[in-house]
């Protein structure tokens, strides 16, 4: 006689409708999500590449597929050229503030960096350099700087640097010191995240995509270096 499995107490309760049925296994959904992620990664493999990088792939990629990205890249470059009216940091004073910042924010996003008057404030120096880089790269956005005590009388030194972001005449975001970022290790990738968050640039902007690719390559290189160092330590 074949042995019969004795139903568990939970099986009996489920059959009687007292407790709910077992949820389906998540494994098929996980596998489907992985396949979809791989498909999207393959489809978007040319995102953020420069025109010369696309030209170098002529022997590897379908011509129609390459032309699609070439045209997309040219359109993006033309759009940036039309919108890029700034390109450097504006050094402003208090009398200029309303015109250069509040009023100007009706036409484009305006970021104001209030820096320390003391040369010993390292975070102010770091953010000043990031503003210079960002202003040159995102010329459709207006970047300004002003000494904090010139903008607001008796502004606390401990709150420097402070970044105020304006749009349509209002402050939409403020960052007091760089503690909410990465301190003195804050990089352009963090500035990218801020610009995407406020809606000043899109998440798939070619400048941001390219920097992310570079960051990923650096991370992979550092990971391999660490693994090599670990192997060397074994000897």
Explain how this protein is built.
Among the domains are: 55-80; 89-213, Glutaredoxin (3-Layer(aba) Sandwich), CATH 3.40.30. Helices cover 49% and strands 12% of the residues. It is built from 9 helices and 5 strands; from the N terminus they run H-H-H-H-E-H-E-H-E-H-E-E-H-H. The longest helix has 28 residues, at 206-233. The radius of gyration is 27 Å and the shape is extended. The model has no long low-confidence stretch (mean pLDDT 79).
Task: List the keywords.
235 residues; alpha/beta; Glutaredoxin; 5-stranded mixed beta sheet; 9 helices; 5 strands; extended
Q: Could you tell me the radius of gyration in angstroms?
A: 27 Å
> How much helical structure, as a percent, in the residues?
40-55%
The helix/strand series, from N terminus to C terminus, equals HHHHEHEHEHEEHH
Largest sheet, described in full? 5 strands, mixed
Strand line-up of the largest beta sheet: 1-3-2-4-5
Number of strands: 5
- Which CATH architecture of the domain at 89-213 is right? 3-Layer(aba) Sandwich
Q: What distance separates the N and C termini?
A: 62 Å
Question: Which superfamily, in CATH terms, is the homologous superfamily of the domain at 89-213?
Answer: Glutaredoxin
The best one-word shape is extended
CATH class of the domain at 89-213: Alpha Beta
Structural class: alpha/beta
| Average pLDDT, all residues | 79
InterPro entries: Phosducin-like_chap/apop_reg, Phosducin_thioredoxin-like_dom, Thioredoxin-like_sf
EC number: 2.4.2.29
Keywords: Glycosyltransferase, Transferase
Protein name: tRNA-guanine(34) transglycosylase
